[in-house]
Amino acid sequence: MKTITLISLCILLTACASTQNKQQTNISFTEQLKVAEEAYTEARLTDAETQYLQLTLTNPEYKEAWFKLGNIYARQGRYEASIRCYEKVLALDNQDGKAWFNLAVVKLNQSRQTLQQAEQTLAPDTAELKQIKQLTQTLNQVSKGS
């Protein structure tokens, strides 16, 4: 009888400890999310990045953290990292229209950057430079909705 009572007590204590750990994890997640959102809103992008990265480690399916990381990287001109984050959002939810839109904008900016680099690198008066300039002009017109 003593053994059954002792085993029951151990199970009860383990269950209580487990519940307490879950509550601490949820509070920790909520607090961390609040800190991340505050840093993001205040444009403290390095702090926000650190917090959102931590959130993705503990909650890899929390797509909002991936989305915010994509935005941070896009603002910093870190297009490859931004693309990976938006693609992660879309892997979690392929119906996320904001992620599709931001992914397209980042890829357009990446294309502009490539075209600008080509214009600065190619020799003047070449057929390729003329094509690059035409493509840049067309891309700019399309982006403006003209």
TrEMBL record:
Tell me yes or no: is Signal among this UniProt entry's keywords.
yes
**InterPro entries (alphabetical):** TPR-like_helical_dom_sf, TPR_rpt
Q: Does the keyword Transferase apply?
A: no
Q: Name one Pfam family in it.
A: TPR_11
> Where does the record place its TPR repeats?
63-96
For this UniProt record, the keywords arranged alphabetically read as follows: Signal, TPR repeat
Q: Per its UniProt entry, which superkingdom is the organism in? A: Bacteria
Please name the SMART domains in this protein's record.
TPR
Name of protein: Tetratricopeptide repeat protein
